[in-house]
Design a protein that fits this description.
Layout: E1 10-11, H1 16-26, H2 34-39, E2 45-46, H3 59-77, H4 88-93, H5 107-110, H6 120-130, E3 135-147, E4 154-166, H7 167-200, E5 206-211, E6 217-218, H8 226-229, E7 234-245, E8 255-264, H9 271-287, E9 295-300, H10 310-317, H11 319-323, E10 326-331, H12 340-357, H13 365-371, E11 389-396, E12 421-426, E13 429-433, H14 440-444, H15 458-461, E14 465-468
């Protein structure tokens, strides 16, 4: 709905030509030119090309949305429109206690330990639909066995599958998924809120690094021949958003937004590449930006191959040995890791596409790096004042990344998937907790296991728990 109108917006399911043909078939005795018919389209009815393509959604959230949509459609068919549920958030609020002015629900409600809230309110509201127990058509993103035409074997792929299920049975499934989803969404929202607080005001002598791999850029050319179309080179783009306090005393500790885009011809997106990129970034910040940094906070998604695994945790424990800097990692909620790095990857690729359309040549990763250097932003503005919105492109050669590091071997940390905060405290030693807190105490004070009694959110995030990374032999370090 537009902000300045009460008219709802609709998008056509067919082209105007198809709609005109259907109309003529139903109104054969009425003469109306196609041009006149097209002009009669209401302004709040949009053409098909204005429908957005929405992708990369969380399957847990989307499967709940699909069930809610099925019940809403069923409610309309039964003339019970008042029973429709607006979205997953309304459904979740119906099974929780009131927030009473707080930003989040009580953790006891989220974890299902509260005796005052539950599924009764939602069950009572949906009772007229459930007692009918008619079959409901609904859809779900589920694994389906499909043939692999190259190997001849069956593989599993997620596809949208249609089911017909009695209303009562489907409602039981919805309740089960809502119980899981409320904690899932709470974690996503909590982590985002903590990251926002940290980025707004990083402590002195620290840097906040938000990082993620962008989708690889595929090199192409203007007026490209057919043979070249099927043999494109790819380029790794790894944006990092660095936030830190400006070292210029005249800036009164203003925040610097330093975008660092790693460009590489190495296409192996793994934890070893991330470690190399991190080393390069810390060296750049110290030597070229001239900042005094003693600790880094790394914010990323929970991809096991890149950021959240035993090797990544081991790298964090060895951070002071490798880079003379303390390291704390925090992870977005599962399936909710979108951040500014996605947009920054688009900036690089959009610039490259414009260069190519204007006749520029980008045939390799090094070409992309050199052609996009014009996007860099200097340390000072034209008037001589300090520029707090910076951008730097850094080239990392494939040969400089060691994808086999025998000295970084350990056993998996139990419960890795449920951990959202990890920090290194020594070679082969880390501390972990289930959620992240960046309150003043947690960002400014080192405290031992189980003693974080002054943390503002201890009841929610838990206390730090020390973990020895078994299997790691520090004596073998090179």
């Amino acid at each position: 709905m537009k902000a300045n109108t009460e008219d709802h917006q609709f998008v056509l399911q067919k082209s105007m030509t198809e709609i005109y043909s259907d109309w003529k078939a139903e109104n054969q005795n009425t003469k109306l030119l196609k041009s006149k018919f097209l002009k009669m389209r209401p302004k709040n009815v949009k053409l098909q090309n204005q429908r957005k393509l929405i992708q990369c959604l969380c399957e847990y959230c989307e499967n709940v949305n699909l069930k809610i949509t099925a019940f809403n459609n069923f409610a309309v068919r039964k003339n019970q429109q008042h029973l429709r549920i607006r979205d997953k958030y309304e459904a979740i609020n119906m099974i929780l206690c009131e927030k009473n002015g707080e930003q989040f629900n009580k953790i006891t409600c989220i974890e299902g330990k509260c005796v005052n809230c539950g599924t009764e309110n939602l069950s009572k509201r949906m009772e007229p639909l459930i007692i009918a127990n008619e079959e409901i058509k609904w859809q779900k993103w589920d694994f389906v066995n499909v043939p692999n035409h190259k190997t001849g074997k069956e593989i599993k792929k997620r596809q949208l599958v249609t089911f017909f299920t009695p209303a009562q049975q489907l409602f039981v499934q919805l309740l089960d998924e809502l119980q899981f989803l409320l904690y899932h969404l709470f974690v996503a929202s909590w982590q985002q809120n903590q990251f926002r607080q940290l980025n707004n005001r990083p402590p002195e002598k620290t840097v906040v690094l938000t990082m993620d791999f962008a989708e690889n850029f595929s090199c192409f050319s203007q007026n490209e021949i057919q043979g070249a179309h099927w043999a494109k080179d790819s380029v790794t783009i790894h944006p990092v958003i660095a936030r830190y306090q400006c070292k210029n005393q005249e800036c009164n500790n203003s925040m610097v937004d330093d975008i660092i885009d790693i460009i590489s011809n190495d296409l192996q997106h793994d934890v070893h590449a991330v470690q190399k990129f991190t080393e390069v970034i810390i060296k750049f910040l110290r030597e070229e930006r001239g900042i005094d940094v003693e600790k880094m906070f790394i914010l990323s998604d929970g991809c096991a191959a890149q950021y959240k695994s035993k090797v990544a945790f081991l790298d964090s424990s060895m951070s002071e040995v490798d880079n003379n800097i303390k390291s704390e990692k925090a992870f977005y909620g599962s399936r909710h890791g979108k951040n500014r790095c996605d947009g920054e990857g688009g900036v690089i690729k959009s610039k490259a596409a414009r260069i190519i359309r204007n006749g520029g040549l980008i045939n390799s990763a090094k070409d992309l790096y050199q052609q996009c250097l014009c996007l860099q932003k200097e340390l000072t503005n034209p008037d001589g004042t300090c520029n707090h919105n910076r951008r730097k492109l850094i080239w990392v050669e494939r040969s400089n990344i060691r994808h086999v590091r025998p000295n970084r071997v350990c056993k998996t940390v139990k419960g890795t998937r449920s951990l959202h905060s990890v920090r290194g405290i020594g070679a082969g030693q880390i501390q972990v907790r289930k959620l992240t807190c960046f309150c003043g105490f947690c960002t400014a004070t080192e405290h031992a296991e189980g003693t974080s009694s002054t943390c503002e959110n201890e009841a929610v995030v838990g206390t730090w728990r020390s973990v020895n990374l078994n299997g790691f032999q520090h004596a073998k370090q090179e």
